[in-house]
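Lab meeting, action items carried over

1. Structure of the two-component assembly. Owner: GW. Status: complete.
Input record:
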Amino acid sequence: KAGVTQTPRYLIKTRGQQVTLSCSPISGHRSVSWYQQTPGQGLQFLFEYFSETQRNKGNFPGRFSGRQFSNSRSEMNVSTLELGDSALYLCASSSGLAGTGEQYFGPGTRLTVT
Amino acid sequence: DQQVKQNSPSLSVQEGRISILNCDYTNSMFDYFLWYKKYPAEGPTFLISISSIKDKNEDGRFTVFLNKSAKHLSLHIVPSQPGDSAVYFCAARLSGGYQKVTFGTGTKLQVIP
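Predicted assembly:
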């Protein structure tokens, strides 16, 4: 099976711009979760989508949003970018809801905001 | 509020010796714990997990111990190998099953040949 893929792998944006990141889960997986990784903060949970519905949400401002399509692919959008949004954004998929077992992570998208 | 804490940002161990990575949590409602390993430029990969009804789970060189009264879990790697050098994340899930997974800040393990 192909693993979780994320595009793009690297991105440089300017403050105030918006960005859309994409994630394709493992075939057959219906749950996609998004995490932000920054030095010293570990993986901070953004949100989880299951069968096109947001099931859980982390403590991030409304500038962070996402969606899931009928083929389980997911996108994450960040509007009005801030310098502090520079991070590695990881997507993870699982066959059931994320809390029911292990997740499979993609390689991440490295976002740099200047 | 960091509910899952890995207080050691880094750890160095000689090849062949035991590596012990520690994790503390504050929420007694966590009922399932996982360890993930992350190499640079790759996403985390699942390593081992343990349910709160157990106090030990073993998989080859990796053993996870859970002390519920102390709200503490540890990952033991025996013997440590250079390929084990990576960042290790501890994660926990709230009871109920349909809850988000909370990750710790990670511990960078270096195994010295």
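2. GW to write a short summary for the group page. Key points so far: The first strand of chain A starts at residue 5 and ends at 7. Chain A has no helices and eleven strands.
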